[in-house]
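Ticket #407: bound-state structure for zinc ion.
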Amino acid sequence: MNCRHCNTPLKHTFLDLGFAPPSNAYLTEADLNRPEIYYPLKIKVCDSCWLVQTEDYADADSLFTPEYAYFSSTSASWLDHAKRYSDQIIEWLALNRKSFVLEVASNDGYLLKNFVNAGIPCLGVEPTDSTAAAAEKLGVPVLCEFFGEVLGKRIAAEGKQADLIIGNNVYAHVPDINDFTRGLKAALKVGGTITLEFPHVMRLIEQAQFDTVYHEHFSYLSLHTVSRIFASVGLRTWNVEELPTHGGSLRVYGCHEDDARKTDQSVCVLLGQETACGLQKLNTYVDFQPRADKIKNDLLSFLIEEKQHGRKIVAYGAAAKGNTLLNYAGVKPDLIPFVCDAAPAKQGQFMPGSHIPILPPERLVQVKPDYVLILPWNISEEVSAQVSLLLSSETKFVTAVPKLHIQ
Ligand SMILES: [Zn+2]
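RESOLUTION: The complex was predicted; output attached.
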């Protein structure tokens, strides 16, 4: 396989998690009597452009099924994050009724509703029917399609180039990152701004966040690599912010390469940090696997030992990263009998691979567990605050990444 961006042959493995089903392929009770498809979950790194990327195995269509269950609006902290971003960018770019905002992967409209409420014309692009339908109920217009160069050019041909193009947690999920970036270029108005948010591969490496690796996540991005991909289509990264979301993300600001805005110092500073962190050195990537293995082994030892002492452990948060962790560790319902999740769409279903049932949080009241393993460690504070109301004061919270932590 060659690099998805620069076409250099990929020779180096960053992480090999064996085989796993897609992390968002939640199962119904009937599915438990059917075969389950496992795909290799192997991540390579390009030693030319340093794009960290999933090895090829399947197309995006088979992963983003109409039942795709993730609705952004179920996370309160994510809604707050979206509101703060909207308020800030509307003011900063002086957006108004004459502006046009395009959001790629608009999900259930959790973000664009802020623009609708401010009277700013907008359009969402969202290939998943169920979430797109939820957005339209909020008054957010949605094109139910995949975004890429063809759609970007069509938007331009219809005279709808955008003053602002937003892509939150989509850039890492697109299989053809070059085509997607050409789409951004085509759909951007002269003087317009692109903002993309994605988990920062520097944080993934620093904090051993190997559970953020899953099939739907095709790329693991640095500012260095994104700037390079932007430049290849005539875009420029002119500003960057570090965000605490998803364990450490970047918000990259793009514009046409000949835009009048000067490149902010933040870009140069962060590129320097990435270099200091070794992101342009092969050893940084090939030395990652043993750190993931230690986290897996420490979690397994804990689960087995506590079970042998007769203690009850359940999990909270049926998130994609939880599936990566549990499937790599080979955890089944004998060690974790159920996982609670606040999203009604997931309740009554089963975790892919592990087949652990997903139940409403209220079940914690009856079970009185000794430990609650919080799978989405990035929102562990929010979860523990919500869930402690349902628990006795003796229950302890556990997170597995970056290392086993019990409190
Ligand atoms: Zn490359």
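RESOLUTION NOTES: Residues 289-308 form the longest helix (20 residues).
TICKET STATUS: resolved
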